[in-house]
Structure prediction request, 373 residues.
Amino acid sequence: MKSGEYYPLKTKSSTPAIVNSWNEWDPLRHVIVGVANQGCIPVSEPAIEYHFPEEGGIQGKSGQWPEELIARANSELDNLANVMRKRGIRVDRPTAINFSEPVTTPDFTHPSQIGCMPARDVLLTVGNEILEATMSYRARWFEYLAYRPLVQSYFDADPNMRFSAAPKPRLGLDSYKAGYFDDMNIADFGQIVSKADNMDYVTSEFEPLFDAADATRCGKDIFVQHGFTTNLKGIDWLRRHFSNHRIHRVNFRNDPDPVHIDCSLVPLRPGLVMGNPNRPIVMEPGKEDLFQRNGWEMVMAAKPAHAKPQPLCYYSIWLSMNFLTLDPKTVIVEETEVYQNEQLDKLGFEVIPIPFRNAYPFGGSIHCATADV
Prediction:
């Protein structure tokens, strides 16, 4: 994590690198932005129990989201893409499949899928490699297919690119802790947090499981959250796969739904990282002072502007810190998150506010909706 350890890609070929991304802050030149097309209302499964806000009116419903909601989300996603294109950034979009179709394997059947808005969840770019994550929800088993045409085109065009896919998990009953949610009162915040704080998560250690959005990159250092969507075997697999990197396991206290790292730990630029004031970070033994030891300052994110999630949205209000860094001086932030915008302005960033709350139910906020190339 020290200065000079960010390792830009060096190639022996004269062909310009197409895939080359080592961290979360270098100037962005090429990105994937998701789409809301064919998006479906998530259905509970062994990995997760969905509890939508009552005012959303979709509790107990399934199938494709109403077309008017898809259109609103796509309008905001298209705007995000256009904002970046105007700054000279190449933007690619995935090709939605029919997410209304059930997922059927020899180990399970699930009635429908979710969508391809949150590109960050599936694809992890490390240097000149794009890695497809295992994913840990049954509904997301085939989600990688929406990105395959793009990734295949990068592989065809860039002779230095590495195209990898982690072992597809079984996601049978052995992959989860039986009855994890059965004796849990979802309304009892303390009960849920107590289990999570004791690192008692719904995923078992039967097989490696991880979502790409559980990782955040700082050059040779990659921080991976252990939680509901990434287990210890998944982190071990990443350590073996990226053997030239330092993989750091992290946990976060007081988080009732430890899923994905980009609402809890956000590297802003070399030497500066943002933490979540409600979710204290827990490092591996011996690494408790890793940031301080390497001269990094950790600032706590400003409070969210909204006291409860967006209607129809089951995500945390801490999507407020799920912004996208375009370069060490520029960030794109959801426009209504006024406190976060003000904080980033004071930290010396050019803040580009855009509307994005209509896209939230389809997979998260701005960082979730993108994947660096």
Observations:
- Residues 3-15 have pLDDT under 50 and may be disordered.
